[in-house]
């Protein structure tokens, strides 16, 4: 296999290093930047020192890259791949050093080189990966199957020593090696916490580090070269302890710490009561405007708003998920979580339930340190390296793949930033104590998920969870374990990738149904191209039901999620590069590896794809044209970067099942409603997005809550009681996330947002998040009328008099409404709403006239209020300023003689009485109302 031609790093170093500095770079085999521990420094880190550090990074990156190319050209592909990965890690550190916008030119050059080395490292891996899989003893069992329940097609686990390309048999680390590794980790964390001014926490970590180095020192023989090094680091750590004690005593900052042990429940490090006082909602208040996909803005620290006590209670209540407590991530103080222990950490919540396929092959729980030579959190973040195993979480693995592709392309942490502990560069690191904290977005807020590193393995030693084919890399199975813990276990019933990506990244989920009548392929493609150009959208796609024969013919899996890792347009043809989470089984249609007609040299070069080479190995990655996507996939899931929007706000809301009717088919008056005022300053429209998210506390195989939201304009932001014609009408779906998008016109626009359910089955809790390019205000629409009475009645042959054109109109049910005078002159205006509900086949009407007596006929000037026309099933009339006095309410059907039940509701903000007005000779009934809602 010939090495691809790579541009040397000399161009980079010549352009960026001071003259002559790169000439001193040593040629020959590189030394990994992490081969030795950098001791704590007490020297200044001023601009000159930082510049020297940057120059050293350039030199080291150049040296490593040169060595990688030499190995590659010599045919030493495994060694070359490792060197490329080391070069990429050094370049990532350079990007951190050059994070300021003034270095944008240098950053782009660094990113370009990093992407070249990433591509080559992945290419080298694919060839070796194919050889490993073909030699797997169970390869014959990995035949193509479309059984989405079993998810066969699993690949060899990377932890099985039979498939590791080692020169010698793997030997577990000695106790001294493990203790020394823990000492280095603890010292790193102590330095990091000191830099973050977590003085009390860093003090304890320095103590632990000194203790561990001392233990190693005492166990080593005096002639061991590590002995002097451990003694020196122990003394440096103790000196730091003394220094911090003196500093904190002087400043009065020393805080007593609780002693922890591995048996301590991890929830003890934080509590609901202490955390709740610090909950915050953020509103972004940067000014200015920019086109979609190009806008980047930072949060204004002065825009923090404390949540209401009611919102805090909701977030408390929904912290208990699947009988486990997942506390909110309040602020950076959560980084003080204890990660170092004398004994290996064991999750006090216990082991996760396994799926049926896992249970059938289960061999035990193993730690990475038990089955890996040198476990690391990240070797090379790559979508092509991730493999879904026997857990039925294709949507989750597709989400990991598309997030990994984003990190590789844009060199920005998206998914790996959620893993803790981290090093000083903000990169997650391997913890010898086996404890990890994952930050996920769930039930309205970021939350902490604590897991240990015990992973399920089969009886033959292979991993039975998502794994990376980069040997000894842990980030994917650790994130998966945290997500599965949140979902209740590895027996996860499944989700969709839009939901999973929102949980992983917090990016706004949008679900596009390809078969929807409003689907316009060209419009969707334009949005995809605009979003991916600036790195502001993540795309996944999913198939629907199909027969086994049809699936085999197309090379697709029914009801399966796929990651879209690239989007291109070449000579008018639109393409997606797609990955199957199984890492095998590819598309067989147009532009597939089997298509011998459409691939030409120009297209192959544009997409960097060689079908003949792709025929040699199946890694589940393929190109497909967008027209074929629209024909063969049923859903496109988009997740949008929330930082696109300059202004953001969130509310957290309960919806009690005992308030209002079970179904809101006609009456929306009891539903949660919100007033939205948008101020668009310029002579162009402004995007407004509304995300309704249901809080889930129990993972169920089938979600029976069909929810949506509607947007009404021309309401002045007041409460809406019946459906009418909505400005934006939502579709009822059983997804936990509903997104409504619209453009607000120039000037000030006011809307009413209404939550809706197909049928209320239980009390639910929601978060409503609003996003816009323009300033807006989002507030709750309160229930104005606190005094309410419901009257059940029935139209009979005698009392169903029909509309006013019938002589029998006077026989309709009638009531005398008496509104009391205000108790004081300063009381607000008297308001009232009258609602009538009946069978949906009945056209019904409400009339309110003066007098309080039975009405046989009336003149227009006597009418105080009435519904506009006869409406089916529901009608209402509202008066916001009605004078005290007596009135007559008449409930009628359009046709006389209809027999059926009705429900009359009167609600007001002032005291009133309601009396039925009998037909002559009948007895009246009186209701005195003082019940408040």
From TrEMBL:
**What is the native source organism of this protein?**
Umbelopsis ramanniana AG
Tell me the domain of life: Eukaryota
List the top taxonomic levels of the source: Eukaryota, Fungi, Fungi incertae sedis, Mucoromycota, Mucoromycotina
Record keywords, A-Z? Hydrolase, Protease, Thiol protease
What molecular function terms (GO) are annotated for this protein? calcium-dependent cysteine-type endopeptidase activity
The name under which this protein is listed is Calpain catalytic domain-containing protein
The family classification in the record reads: Belongs to the peptidase C2 family. PalB/RIM13 subfamily.
InterPro entries, A to Z: Calpain_cysteine_protease (IPR022684), Calpain_domain_III (IPR022682), Calpain_III (IPR022683), Calpain_III_sf (IPR036213), MIT_dom (IPR007330), MIT_dom_sf (IPR036181), PalB/RIM13 (IPR051297), Papain-like_cys_pep_sf (IPR038765)
Give any single GO term for biological process: proteolysis
- What stretches pass through the bilayer? none
List the CDD domains hit by this protein, alphabetically: CysPc (cd00044)
Enumerate the active-site residues.
Answer: 394, 560, 580
